[in-house]
């Protein structure tokens, strides 16, 4: 009788514990006994799809790999997509839908910077964790938000890296050519601060408008200043005009770009002047190119899941950010809450991911977790090459 009674008590205890666990899951949005629902937002349509749809495809292949191995603590990862069209108002609407209608647990997202920045207030109010996959706007993570972490390099980090790269290449007379709209200012201002911190001044500081069709005057002034490196804070179109006109006027400095010009092959085609991009170098958030042997498993996964697609550097943005989220979910443990996920993200230190040039490190006071941009170049007619990386403090 004693044994029988003990068994009944034990069974009742297990039943109550299971009910309590089930109730805990029910109280956490997007989490069930066997699923974790993760939202993502970015451009699925329009020209901004490069920073939305393609990274999302990268997230999907990471989730598929994890799910094929049983998920994380027994739960499969489910991705819910929303289109923000690179539009600030649409981004706010997309985030609200993910939070309130789709009831996702956390998010990986943010393609176009202005759209993601516009959604920051909504994300802060909901206290929902977000890992940024591609947006570089400093205002997304500065001042440090409670639940937003960036796996992308930020604009100020890139500006500092541009200057440091020029110095590391032996440049002595460094100049700037930049756009001065809101996008350009977000990069230009921290670049000027970086010059000041190093106690140097640009030998020339030129402005070029986003819709410029001629850069002759700017090139001539930079040439007269005898600049041996030019830091470019430009969209691809004005950058192409500048590089093309530099070649016409026999001005051959080291031309240093940023992730606004993330694809040297496409940029070479846009410049459309043989040999003009020979001295062009630019930043990449990732440490491999789609053609690298190291990217072979991702190439196969993308082509298998999305027939007709080819692996893109933008897929790699999503792959890296998905790996950051997955690691944090593992560290948060089986009794998952948003607070535990945020604590796990804050605890990431020197976490190495194969697609990133350097380790991911987050802290409670700094959610700019990716501070090691890679440098890429393309010899005229040749493949894109990774040259190395620059660590920014």
What are its keywords?
393 residues, alpha/beta, Rossmann fold, 43% helix, 15% strand, globular, signal, Amino acid/amide ABC transporter substrate-binding protein (HAAT family), amino-acid transport
Query: Which outline best applies?
Result: globular
Query: Could you please say which CATH topology of the largest domain applies here?
Result: Rossmann fold
Helix content: 40-55%
**How many domains comprise the coordinates?**
2
The beta-strand count equals: 12
Mean pLDDT: 93
How many angstroms does the end-to-end distance come to? 69 Å
CATH architecture of the largest domain: 3-Layer(aba) Sandwich
Text of the CATH class of the largest domain: Alpha Beta
Backbone structural class: alpha/beta
Uncertain regions spanning at least 5 consecutive residues = 1-25
Counting DSSP H or I runs of 4 or more residues, the number of helices is 12
Residue fraction in strands: 5-15%
The biggest beta sheet is recorded as: 7 strands, mixed
What do we call the CATH homologous superfamily of the largest domain?
A: Response regulator
The whole-angstrom Rg is 24 Å
- Element order, helices and strands? HEHEHEHEEHEHEHEHEHEHHHEE
Cross-sheet strand order for the largest sheet: 7-6-8-9-10-11-12
Protein name: Amino acid/amide ABC transporter substrate-binding protein (HAAT family)
Keywords: Amino-acid transport, Signal, Transport
Organism: Stella humosa
Domain Leucine-binding protein: 35-377
């Amino acid at each position: 009788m004693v044994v029988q009674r003990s068994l009944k008590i034990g069974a009742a205890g297990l039943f109550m514990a299971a009910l309590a666990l089930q109730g805990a899951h029910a109280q956490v949005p997007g989490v069930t006994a066997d699923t974790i629902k993760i939202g993502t937002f970015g451009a699925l349509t329009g020209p901004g799809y490069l920073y939305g749809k393609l990274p999302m495809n990268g997230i999907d292949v990471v989730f598929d790999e994890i799910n094929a191995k049983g998920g994380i603590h027994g739960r499969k990862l489910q991705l819910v997509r929303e289109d923000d069209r690179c539009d600030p108002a649409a981004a706010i609407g997309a985030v609200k839908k993910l939070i309130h209608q789709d009831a996702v647990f956390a998010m990986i997202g943010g393609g176009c910077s202005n759209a993601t920045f516009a959604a920051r207030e909504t994300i802060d109010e909901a206290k929902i964790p977000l890992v940024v996959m591609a947006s570089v706007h400093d205002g997304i993570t500065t001042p440090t938000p409670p639940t937003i972490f960036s796996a992308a390099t930020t604009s100020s980090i890139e500006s500092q890296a541009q200057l440091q790269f020029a110095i590391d290449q032996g440049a002595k007379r460094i100049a700037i050519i930049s756009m001065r709209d809101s996008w350009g200012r977000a990069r230009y201002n921290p670049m000027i601060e970086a010059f000041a911190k190093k106690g140097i001044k640009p030998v020339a500081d030129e402005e070029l408008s986003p819709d410029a069709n001629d850069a002759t005057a700017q090139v001539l002034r930079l040439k007269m200043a005898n600049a041996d490196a030019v830091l470019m804070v430009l969209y691809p179109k004005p950058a192409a005009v500048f590089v093309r006109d530099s070649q016409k006027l026999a001005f051959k400095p080291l031309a240093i770009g940023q992730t606004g010009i993330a694809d040297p092959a496409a940029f070479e085609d846009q410049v459309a002047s043989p040999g003009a991009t020979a001295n062009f170098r630019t930043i990449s958030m990732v440490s491999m190119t789609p053609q690298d042997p190291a990217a072979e498993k991702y190439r196969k996964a993308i082509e298998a899941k999305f027939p007709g697609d080819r692996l893109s550097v933008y897929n790699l943005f999503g792959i890296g950010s998905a790996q950051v989220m997955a690691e944090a979910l593992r560290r948060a443990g089986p009794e998952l809450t948003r607070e535990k996920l945020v604590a796990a993200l804050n605890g990431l230190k020197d976490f190495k991911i194969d697609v990133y040039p350097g380790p991911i490190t987050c802290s409670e006071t700094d959610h700019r977790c990716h501070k090691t941009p890679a440098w890429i170049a393309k010899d005229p007619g040749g493949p894109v090459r990774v040259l190395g990386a620059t660590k920014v403090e």
